[in-house]
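Q: My labmate handed me this sequence with no annotations at all. I'd like to see what the chain might look like in three dimensions before we decide whether it's worth expressing. Could you predict it?
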Amino acid sequence: MQHAVGSPLPPPHQQGHGPAAGWSGAAPHPGPHHPVPPAGAQAGPGPVHPPAGPPVFTGAGAGAQSGPAAPHPPGHPPAPHHAVPHHAPVPPTPDTTGHVQLPPGGPVPMPSAPPATGTPDPTSTTLAVLLIGPAGAGKTSVAKYWADHRRVPTAHISLDDVREWVRAGFADPQSGWNDMSEAQYRLARRTCGFAARNFLANSISCILDDAVFPDRPVVGLGGWKRHVGPGLLPVVLLPGLEIVLERNAKRSGNRRLTDEEVARIHGRMAGWYGSGLPIIDNSQLDVPQTAQVLNDVLSRSIASPPQW
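A: Here is what I predict for the chain of 308 residues:
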């Protein structure tokens, strides 16, 4: 593309080239205001233009002229170009993210022995808690509140949430307990166990919630112990049937059960009485009050872990 005045456009920017390195091979373009001087004549004063490229020296001393390279006599090598030195870029500072070494999660051991004097403080201790209860007991609400108000990092892991990761082909237990619904339940429990172990290995407490039945020890409590570890502290949340029915009525979607199903589940949960596990009746307690009672129960469990 020709221009009436000025130099031609620079070539596209390439690696190692730019304003600092110059544009090689670009000479002033003659135009109406820039007549080409005759051969051997000195160029007179004229408009000053940016240099078209790095200076090319054709001789030594004060008489050296800069401009296009002149033909070299036969047998004489061309004079070397004196290019502006190109400095290697300074390597960037390593990004601090993505370099954190995460220890693998192993089975959760029993909580550390409490001090000889004083009561163990469950709010500042790294713990693994399993909150058990029927639908409508308030497990999820209490678990979230308890995790939110801890003095140490704490995660809440809900088995129902993980079960519902399965979208197409979800086996809803309300449609009948069968091999597929049990398989998805076991997959969800194992996934929750892996997550809990990884969090705890990195000093993050966990509270898991699940409707574990006492009459299915292999599928329920025994499975949690296998996947998390012997240090898991189970606590049963079991309000009265009328409270459970009232709370269940406020639910929606597949989380809401029929009254008959709620009553059946609640009756099976009564089997936890006499099991040795701590039980909280939160019929007359709100969520913060229940969380406080949970702390009291966990304090005793740390001092004397339940046998299960």
